[in-house]
Amino acid sequence: MANGIPGAAAPARGQPPLVDPFGRSIRYLRVSVTDRCDFRCVYCMAEEMTFLPKAQVLSLEELERLCGAFIQTGVRKLRLTGGEPLVRRGIMDLIRRLGRHLDAGSLDELTLTTNGSQLAKYATELYATGVRRVNVSLDTLDPDRFHAITRWGKLAPVLDGIKAAKDAGLSVKINCVALRGVNDGEVHDLVAWCGREGHDLTFIEVMPLGDIDGDMGEGNQGGMVRADQYWPLSMLRAELAKRWTLTDLPVSTGGPARYARVAETGGRVGFITPMTHNFCESCNRVRLTCTGMLYMCLGQDDAADLRAVMRGAPGDDDALLAAIKEAIARKPKGHDFIIDRRQKAPAVARHMSVTGG
Ligand code: SAM
Q: What is the pTM of this model?
């Protein structure tokens, strides 16, 4: 224990990172703290999902311990995601405890990806724990369309949550999955709204992760398959260029998005293109599920069972650190997603909500 924080490294600033076989330094851990969500987005989940039994899900203490172990290996950025991270009971306790790594200087950033439904409740507290930025997923500004996409969600509380986050001092980045025939008529409105509100906006190509049967899923009358949903961002960008002056910005965030400045709003628009141009060469991240499986790549099946290591050797950080090192030593070069009508099965069986988007 260092700095009074269980699992905290001693002097962690400058801690050399773990480096994978392709020379990429692993500085970024995304943690899915729950597989549960209060929405059922049509491209993300089936409407009837079977969630994990509680015994399989890591406790908050186990999540904290695992995050601490990653920080000891040189991870400097943690992102909590899910499922919906803010619906996990006790989540603020975990965030508060992880925030102490920020105070100790052993972590540079603690952040979240959220659907925004609980942000109004938690924004102020999040800021107090040291969180400074949140990504909010928002695919439309139209209430009916919002309900159709999320199946269960309501737009107004999400907009209230975004406002509360801004008022609390958090910077908000909006993530929007580009869906052909669904929100493709709205991209100009989203750019204008984000410009006015001062939010970065990132568009994301839909990825073939998990089965999505249901009202837009394959097999339903008039249903929508991924091949229908998929809208390449090259086409979205061409649409944007009809109304906005976009100037590419130098690649600087280290993340997968490529950004452009929108002259008319002064805002930034990002493009995440896992389908048309993957960004694996600069991947600095690994992903932990709420059951303690560590995925070294979003689009591959290989994983390391850290829950088994942790529960098999309670209190033995060395075993955990060795397991993390061994896993990163086999991080694959990248993924190769394909969406077409002949490809019926998803590229990977697990949903984004499992791996943590
Ligand atoms: N509930 C939180 C939220 O809505 O942001 C966090 C988890 S959610 C799985 C994270 C992100 O993954 C969301 O932005 C969502 O739109 C995105 N996502 C889910 N399934 C996807 C898919 N098949 N392709 C691309 N993005 C996806």
A: 0.91
